[in-house]
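Entry 14. Ran structure prediction on the chain below.
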Amino acid sequence: MNFRPHVSAITRTKRQIWLALLVVLPLAAQSSDPFQQAMILVQQGKIAPAIELLEKLLATAPSNLKALNLMGIALAASGRRVEAGQRFEKAVATNPNFVPALKNLAANELALGKRKQAQSHFEAAAKLAPADPMVNLALAEFAYEARRFSDAATGYGKGGDLLYRDPAVVLRYATACVESERRKEAVAAIMRIDRPAGAQAHFAAGLLLTRLEEYEGAAQRFEWAETNSPDPYNAGYNAALAWFRAGKFEETIRVGNRLKPPADRQGELLNLVAQAHEKAGRTKEAYESLRKATEINPRDEINYLDLIGLCLEHQNYELGIEIAEIGLKLIPESHRIQLVRGVIYATNGRLELAEKDFAQAAEEAPPEASLPIVSRGLMLLQMNRASEAVGLFRKRAQSHANDYLVHWFLAEALIRQGAATGSPEEQEATIALQSSIRQKPEVPQTHLMLGKLLLKRGDLTSAAKHLEAAMRLDPKDTSAIYQLGTLYRRQGNAKRAAELFAKVGKAKSEEQDQANAGTILRIIREGSK
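Output, C-alpha cells:
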C-alpha cells in the first residue's frame, strides 16, 4: 500500500511573496508635508496623484532617499517597473546602506526576471539587516531552488510571521527541514497551516507528514484535502491509509466506508478495509471485503495473496487452497499464487505437493524472481534432501550474485547439511551470509545466523556485532538474545549475560526455521507491488 500523489500536486514554482511586501509603510496622519501626503496617497491606492506629488518633491530635492524609494514603489505599483528600478538604483547609489531601497531594488529586479542581480542585492541587504524577515525569506527561496536545503531552512526560520502568510512557502520550509533532517521544525511548520489553506496545500502537507511517519497528522490533512479537491477519492484513500499506518483501524474503516472510488480502484479500497477489519479483530468482515475485491477485479493477484494469507493465519488451509485454485484459473500466469499455494501445502505438511508447486512457480516466474527457487530449496531441506538444496542455491548464486535471498538460504542449507566449524562448507556459509548482509543489512535473521557461526568459531568481537544487530532489528527474537547472553558470559560479563537470560526465560538456543510461512508470504506480497 503506497501513498498516491495528487493528480494536481503543488508545483515548486516560486510565488515571490515578497513582491507584495515591497515596504511596510507606516500609517500616516494628515499632514502638510508633501512626502507624508504622497505616502497617504500610495496607501490609499491613489498612485497617479502620488507620483505627481513626488515628482514635484524630487524636482527640488533629487537626492531625497525616502522620496526616491517611495517613487519607486509607486511606479512599480503602476506597472512601470523599469522606471521604478531606476529610482531604487539612484537611492542606493546615493546611500548604499539604505536598506529599504536595496530590498525594493532586489524585489523589483526579481519581478523583471533579473534573478542574478536580485540575489546579489538581497545578499547585500542581508549584511546590513541580517534579521530582516523579508530578506531572509527571499534568500531562503533562492537556496531552496538551488537545493541548499539547510541554508533554506535557516533562512525560512528567520522569516517570522511573514513566512506563514503563504501555505506554499510554509511547505517549502517544511520540505527544506525534512531534507536537512530537522524533523521537529518540519512538523511544527506544517501544523501552523490552517484548515482554509486549500486542498492542494493540505495534500502536500499530508505527503510530507507521511515521510516523517507522522501518520495521524497526515490522515487529518488528507481528510481536509478532500474538500474542494479535484480528486477527493485520492485524498480520502490516502487518509484511510494513513489511519491504517497509525494503527487507527476503526478510523480506516470509517473513511473507507464513505469513499466512492472509481471502478478501477474499488479493489484497492476493499483490500485496505479488509486489512483494517482483520487488525480490529473482525475476521469475517475481512474475508468478505477481500472476496468482494476478488470479484470486482478478478485479475488482481494482490487480493488473492491477502485472502490466502488470511486463511493461513487462521489455519483455514482448505479454503486457502480453494482460493488459490480459483486465482490460478483466472490468472494462470501468476507464479506468486502458485507459490502461496505451495506455502499452504508446506505449512500443512504436504511437502511433495509444496515442492511441486514451487518447481512450477520457478518455471513460470521471470528470471529475476528468486523466491520460487528459494522456496523449493527449503522444501528440499525439510524433505531431508539437503544436498539437492545446496546444489540448487549454489547454481542460483552463480547466476544472481546480488540476490540477498539466495545467499541467505544457501548459508541456511549448508548449515542444515551440517557444516562443521572450520570446514570449507562453514567458510562458504560465512561468505554467503556476509554477501547477503551487504546487499540487505536490515534482515535480522542473516545477522543472527552469521553471529552464531562466528560465536562457534570463537570470534567473539565480530559475533557480538552481528548478534547485537539482530537483536536491534528484531527485539522480540529470543534466539538472538540468548546467543548474545551466551557470548557475554564467555567474555566474563556475567551481569549483562544474566540480564539477557532473564529476558529469554526458558527459550532454547536450537536452530529456528528461518523461512516460516509469514516471512515467505510477506516477501511474495512485496514482490507483487
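The chain has a mean pLDDT of 87. Will compare against last week's run tomorrow.
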